[in-house]
């Protein structure tokens, strides 16, 4: 495989240098990340891919401050998050990081509107109503804001999750298999929305996925295997992603 080398970004939403992460000891020791250094440009949509156990979820969790590294440095925006306390990380995630999960993670007793603004309420701040209206309009949720999750389709629930992630204008949105629980048509809709949020709103998206078709919506695909980087693809297509994964032994 001869993946394209991306030019160094002029500005990074997230940067990582020499990340090392190990789980277990002795015979059970697993090197989840092996000296990983990577940058994610502002306004770019990046997919992280690799075989099961390659370290892609570990990389996402450490970049988002959900897990720690043994050594190395992670910078989100202009803040170094490695070494932060739990309280500092919680505050940073509320203010500067958005999350989109495969399982939506909506509160079932709250309306769509209440779910969208929940992170801001937890942080003790009020939403920018003009920005909220713009996001809701882009995502086509205007007539669903009073509905509770059980009254929404899977695609509508994921759109609520996307709106919630974008509302705080975070430095970066992490998407963990965001279409894994959706049918192909609804998944394509959500992926198109993520791509639009990057291209039209300048949002930085970092997505973990196992699906070559989902990865093809990204600007760049980063390949991991056995805890180490194994190149990247620019302007990916499902076929080029499949070809690259086949070189990593992924069927």
UniProtKB/TrEMBL annotation:
Residue ranges occupied by any ABC transporter domain in the UniProt entry: 14-251
Protein keywords: ATP-binding, Nucleotide-binding, Transport
Keyword Mitochondrion listed: no
Pfam family, one: ABC_tran
GO MF term set: ATP binding
CDD domains: ABC_MJ0796_LolCDE_FtsE (cd03255)
PROSITE patterns assigned to the protein according to its UniProt record, in alphabetical order: ABC_TRANSPORTER_1, ABC_TRANSPORTER_2
Name listed for the protein in its UniProt record: ABC transporter ATP-binding protein
Species per Swiss-Prot/TrEMBL record: Citricoccus muralis
């Amino acid at each position: 495989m001869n993946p394209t080398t991306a030019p160094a970004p002029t500005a990074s939403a997230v940067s990582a240098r020499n990340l090392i992460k190990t789980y277990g000891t002795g015979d059970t020791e697993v090197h989840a990340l092996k000296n990983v250094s990577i940058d994610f440009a502002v306004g770019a949509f990046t997919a992280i891919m690799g075989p099961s156990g390659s370290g892609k979820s570990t990389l996402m969790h450490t970049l988002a401050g959900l897990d720690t590294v043994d050594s190395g440095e992670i910078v989100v925006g202009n803040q170094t998050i490695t070494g932060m306390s739990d309280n500092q990380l919680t505050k940073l995630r509320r203010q500067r990081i958005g999350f989109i999960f495969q399982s939506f993670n909506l509160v079932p007793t709250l309306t769509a509107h209440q779910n969208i603004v929940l992170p801001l309420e937890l942080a003790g701040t009020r939403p920018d109503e003009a920005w909220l209206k713009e996001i809701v309009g882009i995502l086509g949720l205007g007539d669903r804001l009073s509905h509770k999750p059980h009254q929404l389709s899977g695609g509508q629930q994921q759109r609520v999750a996307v709106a919630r992630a974008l509302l705080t204008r975070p430095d970066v949105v992490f998407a963990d298999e965001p279409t894994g629980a959706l049918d192909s048509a609804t998944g394509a809709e959500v992926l198109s929305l993520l791509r639009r949020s990057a291209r039209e709103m300048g949002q930085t998206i970092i997505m973990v996925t196992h699906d070559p078709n989902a990865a093809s919506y990204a600007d760049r695909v980063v390949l991991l295997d056995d805890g180490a980087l194994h190149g990247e693809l620019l302007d990916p297509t499902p076929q080029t992603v499949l070809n690259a994964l086949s070189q990593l032994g992924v069927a």
